[in-house]
Amino acid sequence: MSSFKRNFLALPVLGMLAFASACGGGDEGGQAGGEAATGGTETAAPAPAPAAGAETAPAAQGTVHEVKMVTTQNGASGEFQPANLTVKKGDTIRWTTDGGAPHNVSFPAAENAGAANLPPAGTYLTTAGQTHEITVGMDAGTYNYQCDPHAPMGMKGTLTVQ
User: Positive or negative CA dihedral for 109, 107, 32, 38?
Assistant: First the structure.
């Protein structure tokens, strides 16, 4: 087969590979940064306006509390600012990362013995400005939360629900 015919036949294959790589996809776990989890939502960018007739998530009923996830020690640790928060059932908590290292929000059962309605652990936030939100559904009490990879270095917080 001539070199011209071989190169001519390779063009459609190269074009399809280029198209497939441009389309991209989620991460290894199949979750993109904007995927919702039960009890919380991670977002990397504002959501597009819903189509006509589409359902939208209800707006927060209570107060929205902001917590910053700040990377320290060149990514080796971090801290929640503020680390201790007092809220009411129905309020929303929004954690926002600075993007200096991967952070998440987790309410480990081992750190909250006997607690019910704990939110599931959030996915890792890696880009500055990404957020994780929960609507507080726990009963009155004190709950411990943490960033899983940085908990051994002290990235922990306390949530008091009134």
Answer: positive
60-161: CATH number: 2.60.40.420
Q: Where are the domains of the chain?
A: 60-161
Identify the helix (H) or strand (E) that includes residue 23.
Answer: helix 3-23
Please tell me the number of Cα atoms within 13 Å of 58 on its side-chain side.
8
94 and 72 in contact (C-beta within 8 Å)? Answer: no
| Rounded to 5°, angle at Cα 100 from 68 and 158 | 35
DSSP-derived secondary structure for 33-101: TT-EETTEEEESSPPPPPPTT---PPPPSS-EEEEEEEEEGGGTEEEEESSEEEE-TT-EEEEEE-SSS
Per residue in 103-117, pLDDT (tens digit) is 999 999 999 999 999
Is 0.85 topped by the overall pTM?
Answer: no
